[in-house]
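Q: I'm building a small set of examples for a reading group on sequence design. Run inverse folding on the following structure and report the sequence directly after it, with nothing in between.
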């Protein structure tokens, strides 16, 4: 640092402010410091900088299921914001295991990250431990969480999906819900039941199946629904992985979608354009979810005392070919 100060003809304090971003330095002086850094080939030591500032340029992110294509889209939105603002992303996957989440939160905090983005697992305890860097939760609200939150309008999106089936003449509608301990799954179930209640369509309890937001349990739930009498004319799967399982169940049952059974889904993964038939689905903006959450985290890093915010992004119904029109 002393060499840089001499080379640039500035004080040691000015070099430190430029290197650590701890104060605004007027352009000519700032540029002289950066030129000296370049000429001397100086590589800042992140570790010593972190210890000095009690904060590094690391952003930690914890996701629940890296095998679900929805989450990499969210991570991509975060990474674009992190890179633009000279932060580095450390990504952890919990497999929806709350003990892994606790371990990762503790290990990440030991790296002195500037902040953490969390898509909580089942039974997340993050709300009980508010010490350490700012945390923004994404996609689902952990029990007791009062901090920053970025999600989508799950209830309204599910309402739109169910309303579309009703408008297309369906009255015997099955639902494959996500895990009841997740708030996004709860809200999608609420949107579905509200749409049927508003249309005064009775809901057969056996038509509501709870699954785990993955293809295998989407398949097994759909197989149960397809064997019921009367068989539902339509199934709303509340995420696209479960819809893939349901399509497989329809095929293996020697049935046809949408001729025998219509399917509508939620997420809007690109893969849903390639299924046979292409899936009608409610699109939620995964990339925008991550981008917005990362922007909010940067604001929180700079101004931690601001009141907590909840940002809710809109969903869009994408009509394709997996829902039959029974009105005809
Ligand atoms: O956990 C899986 C689901 O949660 C995703 O498919 C997406 O719907 C997210 O909200």
């Amino acid at each position: 640092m002393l060499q840089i100060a001499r080379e640039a003809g500035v004080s040691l304090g000015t070099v430190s402010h430029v290197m650590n971003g701890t104060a605004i330095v007027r352009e000519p002086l700032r540029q002289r410091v950066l030129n000296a850094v370049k000429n001397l080939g100086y590589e800042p030591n992140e570790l010593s900088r972190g210890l000095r500032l009690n904060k590094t340029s690391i952003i930690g992110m914890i996701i629940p299921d890296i095998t679900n294509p929805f989450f990499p889209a969210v991570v991509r939105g975060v990474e674009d914001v992190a890179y633009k603002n000279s932060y580095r992303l450390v990504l952890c996957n919990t497999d929806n295991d709350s003990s892994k989440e606790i371990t990762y939160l503790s290990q990440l905090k030991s790296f002195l990250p500037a902040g953490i983005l969390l898509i909580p697992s089942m039974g997340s305890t993050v709300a009980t431990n508010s010490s350490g860097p700012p945390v923004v939760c994404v996609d689902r609200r952990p029990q007791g969480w009062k901090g920053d939150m970025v999600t989508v309008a799950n209830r309204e999106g599910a309402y739109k999906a169910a309303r579309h089936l009703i408008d297309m003449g369906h009255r015997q509608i099955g639902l494959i819900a996500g895990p009841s301990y997740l708030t996004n799954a709860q809200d999608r179930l609420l949107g579905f039941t509200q749409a049927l209640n508003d249309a005064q369509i009775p809901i057969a309890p056996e038509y509501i199946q709870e699954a785990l937001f993955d293809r295998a349990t989407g398949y097994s739930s759909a197989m149960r629904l397809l064997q019921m009498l009367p068989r539902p004319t339509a199934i709303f799967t509340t995420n696209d992985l479960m819809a893939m399982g349901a399509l497989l169940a329809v095929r293996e049952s020697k049935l046809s979608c949408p001729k025998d059974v219509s399917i509508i889904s939620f997420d809007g993964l690109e893969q849903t354009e390639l299924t046979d038939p292409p899936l009608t689905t409610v699109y939620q903006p995964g990339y925008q979810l991550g981008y917005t959450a990362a922007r909010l985290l940067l604001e929180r890093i700079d101004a931690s005392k601001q009141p907590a915010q909840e940002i809710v992004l809109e969903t869009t119904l994408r009509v394709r070919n997996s829902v039959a029109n029974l009105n005809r």
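The first strand starts at residue 58 and ends at 63.
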